[in-house]
Specification:
This protein is of the alpha/beta class. Helices cover 36% and strands 33% of the residues. It has a domain of 166 residues: Vaccinia Virus protein VP39 (Rossmann fold, 3-Layer(aba) Sandwich). A 7-stranded mixed β-sheet has the order 4-3-2-5-6-12-11, with helices on both faces. α2 packs parallel to α3 and α5 crosses α6.
């Protein structure tokens, strides 16, 4: 993209943002809305979710990560790859337990900000982590790891991106390297509630609904609420387009990328080895 194209694109983005902000503000004034409310659509890169993720989901995710890392990490000798590092929960665990560099791949700036803040609060980990601010399909790492971790990520990639991402992970792993990956969902899920947490006098809650978004796709909509004295004082929403894949089809994708699936674990986890 040329400099002129960059400037035109940036101006267009700015105009759309200003128009959206103006329209939203006008609609709020017309309705007399006093509630703090946000709604982010698909493609806004965790701009809303990053604020709530650790508060509502960290405990459950950390327990899952601890179990899986205990079972499958072993003793890496080359390096570790953390794909879709998010707020750095697994990154920190991996860096604590592995005596090698952890390559944390996280393209979403909002999540990466939390990841970097987490690392800043643990100075002993700073020399053990390298952060890559791109999607895995663009990371370009070659033979830097003998263990790879990819949880809560594959569902966000369409089939082409998924193939590119798996190929990039295979390139980043040495021969025989182990991949722990969560396969995409294969069907629509009923609504579910996120764990709730109290912060002072406020109760933070979250709900997730799943809707059909066309062949092989679903739309996950997250609604976060802050309640005080039984009144909602703030609500924020964010939607994610999710790409579905049958378990057998994802196993074929792994093989096509140069992996041999060797085991299955909880929560749709597949373990695979890098082959020639």
């Amino acid at each position: 993209m040329s400099e002129a194209d960059d400037l035109a694109y940036g101006a267009g983005q700015r105009a759309r943002w200003e128009a959206g902000r103006s329209a939203s503000a006008e609609s709020f004034r017309a309705a007399g809305v006093a509630l703090g409310w946000e709604d982010r659509g698909v493609g806004d890169s965790y701009a809303v979710t990053a604020e709530f993720y650790d508060l509502l989901q960290a405990d459950e995710f950390r327990r899952l990560a601890e179990r899986l890392i205990r079972r499958w990490l072993g003793t890496p000798e080359v390096g570790v790859l953390d794909v879709g590092a998010g707020t750095g929960l697994a990154t920190a665990l991996l860096a604590e337990q592995a005596g090698v560099v952890v390559h944390a791949v996280e393209p979403a700036g909002a999540m990466r900000a939390v990841l970097l803040s987490r690392l800043a609060g643990q100075p002993h980990l700073l020399n053990r982590v390298r952060v890559h601010a791109v999607g895995v399909q663009h990371v370009g790492l070659k033979a830097v790891a003998d263990f790879a971790w990819c949880v809560n990520t594959m569902a966000c990639l369409d089939p082409l991106e998924r193939a590119e991402g798996l190929a990039a992970m295979r390139a980043a792993l040495v021969l025989g390297g182990r991949l722990v990956v969560q396969r995409p969902p294969h069907r629509l899920e009923p609504p579910w509630e996120l764990p709730s947490r109290r912060l002072g006098d406020d109760l933070y809650t979250g709900q997730v609904t799943c809707a059909d978004a066309g062949p092989g796709k679903a739309l996950w909509r997250f609604v976060y609420r802050v309640t005080r004295d039984d009144h909602v004082v703030r609500e924020a929403r964010e939607s994610f387009e999710v790409h579905l894949a049958e378990p057998w089809a994802f196993a074929d994708e792994l093989r096509a990328a140069g992996f041999d699936p060797i085991a299955q674990d909880e929560k749709e986890i597949v373990v695979a080895l890098a082959r020639r």
